[in-house]
Amino acid sequence: MPGNPMSLGPSNFGPNFINTWFSSFRGTHFRLIGAPTTLRRTLAATHSISYNKLVRANITSPVSISKSETVASSTTTSVNGYPEYSRLLPCPSTNLSPRIEHLVVLEKSPVCEYISKSLDLPPLYVADLIHFGAVYYALICPDPPVTATPEQVQLYQQFTSPELLLHRRSIKGKTFREAQKTFRVTCTEESFEVGTYLRIHVHPKRFPRCYEIDWKSRIIAVTESYVVLDKPAGTSVGGSSDNIEECCATFATRALGLTYPLLTTHQIDNCTEGCVVLARNKKYCSTFHKKIRDKMVKKLYLALAAAPVPRGIYTHYMRPFNFAPRLISEEYIDRWLLCQLEVLDCKEVPWPNSSIREKYQIEDCGWPVENLAYECTVDLLTGRTHQIRAQFAACGAPIIGDSMYMPASLAEKATPNINPLGKCKEEYTSEDEKNIAIDNWIALHGKEPTVAIGLRACQISWDSGEHIYNAGSPWWR
């Protein structure tokens, strides 16, 4: 039965069994909850980047771009009434609304061709999605979510029927769970066995700043084993789940003209800038990971706060849920993660002026613009996701421009007991009442910043200071 750890091998069914079985599904796509209700969607018009600008930046696109393709107007209408658009480049200035499609292969053909026909997408666009790492496959359909409709559950059961699975060659010798693991599709001409599951991120998250940066000027150091990069804000270190093309590792590799791609050893938030170490080979990547685990790597940050944060060590506990916003509590809570940082210095600096805020798309989030901001030097003692941002906000001193945590900090400033995990939290009569309060607290947080916030990884060192590197001046100076 599905879900059993038994191996799935051949059966005694005749050779035409699988073709007969799938003939009843022709023209039907396996659609999971959350997928769009229609197969056709408009690919929104994109903000053009000139061909000359790409050439000046010395950027090699993932696919060849001709000058005529670059200047093609998105107002041209195709025969189906939607704007004609065939490539992922030029990069749009804003991200399109998320769109994820779920399909099951019903006839063997090159994956690019199959997706193009199934979703009515231009073949070149699908080829770019595959290059961006936005297409995944699994030999067996993943389990439907708890919110799936009865019809969706029925489709899942049909596609994972033991009678069908026992006849599929690709899952011979694999357990059911092993066959459900997803992997990136890497080749446009790859063909998959009938019954294979496909997940297509039709609108991958884009990073237009990658095309605006002089990447060579951001290189701090190059050694035989690693490269130290001054990461720009508004970029991803190693890519997102649907875009491994537009990231620091890829563009730094190109800027240095390296034969092999640089590898990520650690992460900082997209909206954070500063020192990042990229390995030149897998061996050093593993070595640096071990140094981080052994607490041999030290990171200093500059944080531009909206209010003063006195010197000292700050301790909080973070809820171990892998999604934002990250909730923290001053009181110990069982299984919550320890968060510690030390503020080494806090000094007054001018609040960023309007031209700088506009350049880096700094949002005020309703916080009044002041004459002074507070630049804090922070020693990160534990490295949790969003740790400095969440801890500073909990102290009533959110990072300037942090559109995720600043609105909640502002709300708590106006109504101190609104934070169910804060100093002035209310006493709740039941766990359900507290959970409702937590959900309401989460809703007060905003979205992830577009480009930059007042946070910079200003220094990284390891091996007791034997290796030490500093980033340049932060954007607010």
Automatic annotation (TrEMBL):
<dbReference type="GO" id="GO:0003723">
    <property type="term" value="F:RNA binding"/>
</dbReference>
<dbReference type="InterPro" id="IPR050188">
    <property type="entry name" value="RluA_PseudoU_synthase"/>
</dbReference>
<feature type="domain" description="Pseudouridine synthase RsuA/RluA-like">
    <location>
        <begin position="226"/>
        <end position="394"/>
    </location>
</feature>
<dbReference type="GO" id="GO:0000455">
    <property type="term" value="P:enzyme-directed rRNA pseudouridine synthesis"/>
</dbReference>
<dbReference type="InterPro" id="IPR006145">
    <property type="entry name" value="PsdUridine_synth_RsuA/RluA"/>
</dbReference>
<protein>
    <recommendedName>
        <fullName>Pseudouridine synthase RsuA/RluA-like domain-containing protein</fullName>
    </recommendedName>
</protein>
<dbReference type="GO" id="GO:0009982">
    <property type="term" value="F:pseudouridine synthase activity"/>
</dbReference>
<dbReference type="Pfam" id="PF00849">
    <property type="entry name" value="PseudoU_synth_2"/>
</dbReference>
<dbReference type="InterPro" id="IPR020103">
    <property type="entry name" value="PsdUridine_synth_cat_dom_sf"/>
</dbReference>
